[in-house]
Amino acid sequence: MSESDLTTPFDWHRFWTEADGDRRRSAHVGQYGKADLLAQFFETRGVPDSVASFGCGPAACPIELATRYPETAVHGYDAAPSAIAEARERIADRGLENVTVAVDHLPEPNVDRSFDLVYCYATLHYVDDVETALRELFARVADGGHLVFNYPNRLTLSTYRRLVRGEADRPLPGDPDDFRERYRLVFAERNLLSYDRVETILGRRPRSFWSVVERPDAPWIGRDNPLVYVRN
């Protein structure tokens, strides 16, 4: 794979336009009870006045949070215009006034404001300049607020390699045939992180999300899919 192939972003606009069925569900950020898990986080850290989800896809999680917390301003950002168009239709259908979505992208988003909670799930896997992305996400966290995110590490790489070889030890969402294309940056070891590296980038030691939220028994949870939070 050439350098240009690695640095060309995955075409999420085309994906959300064409994908259906299991392939679409495999990339749907809002699945797997993410709103439920964030609600538990709010119980321990307080309900935020504002939330931003970067890499929100069709905004299932922001829409659910906006429905549950009508006093919270929820914002969703995604690089794919097709995903944002779909999200706007869903928002209009529900008549929600406290959630907005817009096209924006990492590593350097255009949105110029801060939020009490910034949430970024299943997105850093697709970002080449992951250090800049993390700094920019954290820069948008208000004082006393939190950044919640997951990231690929060396165990992620090992799991994905076993998956494409047909040797996965547990079921994971997605078509193995898609993995090398979708996760080409992970396979190339371009954007792997660790607790220590996150601490070096942000100047804050991340904490496991599961230290404050009850960890569900689900195949997508493991050491190869660390979910952490950092307080500003």
Describe this structure as you would to a colleague:
This protein is globular. The protein has 232 residues and is α/β, with parallel strands linked by helices. The protein has helices at 3-7, 12-18, 21-26, 34-45, 60-68, 81-94, 130-139, 154-164, 176-182, 184-187, 195-202, and strands at residues 50-54, 73-78, 99-103, 115-120, 141-150, 207-208, 227-231. The protein contains eleven helices and seven strands. The model has no long low-confidence stretch (mean pLDDT 89). The longest helix is centred in the middle third of the chain and has 14 residues, at 81-94. Helix 4 crosses helix 5 (60-68). It has a seven-stranded mixed sheet with strand order 3-2-1-4-5-7-6.
In short:
This protein is of the alpha/beta class and about 230 residues long. It has eleven helices and seven strands. It has helices spanning about 5, 10-20, 20-25, 35-45, 60-70, 80-95, 130-140, 155-165, 175-180, 185, 195-200; strands at about 50-55, 75-80, 100-105, 115-120, 140-150, 205-210, 225-230.
